[in-house]
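2.7 Reproducibility. Because tokenized structures are sensitive to small changes in the input, we list the exact sequence used for Sugar ABC transporter permease, including any N-terminal residues retained from the expression construct. No trimming or masking was applied before prediction.
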Amino acid sequence: MTQTNDELVRPGVSGGLADIVRARFLLKLLVRKELKVRYRGSVLGLMWSYIKPGVQFLVFYVALGVFMGLEQSPTNKSGLPNYAIYLFSGIVLINFFTEALGNASRSIVGNGGLIKKIYLPRQLFPVASVWVSAVHFFPQLLILLAACFFSGWHPSLLQLAAAAIGFIIVTLLATGLGLLFGAANVYFRDSENFVDMLLMVATWASPVMYSWTMVHNKLGESWFTLYQLNPITVAVETFHYAFWLPTTDESAGIPPNLLSIWVPVALIVSAGVLIWGQLTFRRLEGRFAQEL
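Resulting structure tokens (single pass, no recycling of outputs):
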């Protein structure tokens, strides 16, 4: 009689984010499904990825750049040079974060019918939402790059690397929070409203539409340090450093110690949020089917 030492494994036990790698084909199918469902019956389809941020940019540019005087002009030397590039580079990144987190936090409840029928790694749903948001992010990035080249963009390799790291920071943070709130939303539907408020605050709590110097001058050094602990703030500043600053004479500068201190801190915080979100998700996912 042949003996085996294989341990019994309880069915349905999650392997965490490692399951995403093993089930990458399912991830691809989910991303395709999300894109098809979102644009089913739509005339413009993926063109909405260009139209919505374009309208958002125009509204903020006219309201803040023209009426509030944030655009530098011959009669307004205190404004920001190339404010259009400054504004759009921040909008592109914050839109990715808000879409990724908003959709990821609703992904488990939204796919409740599928979850109740079959078992598959539940982490696939929040991660697929982040991937769909990335699909919408890159067309906007192409528009930003075109505008930068038109404005005389001359980035260094360090600046391009900073932009890539900024995108990684936001991706880690959105995935971690998406896992956290996606699991919590199964048990407490108020989580959706909390996420909506969080996303509303995130747009204004980062230097998307205003300069970091305005925050520093108003709050002082101590509060500004707390402000810099927000990973979204650091990520937006890396995008300004990569896309906006090379279109100017670079006299405006970047926050002190952005690359040497704040970028590593933001990466650590975002990775910590990802671990927290994953641990919470694994703890709660066992009763998803029953709660849904």
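The radius of gyration is 21 Å.
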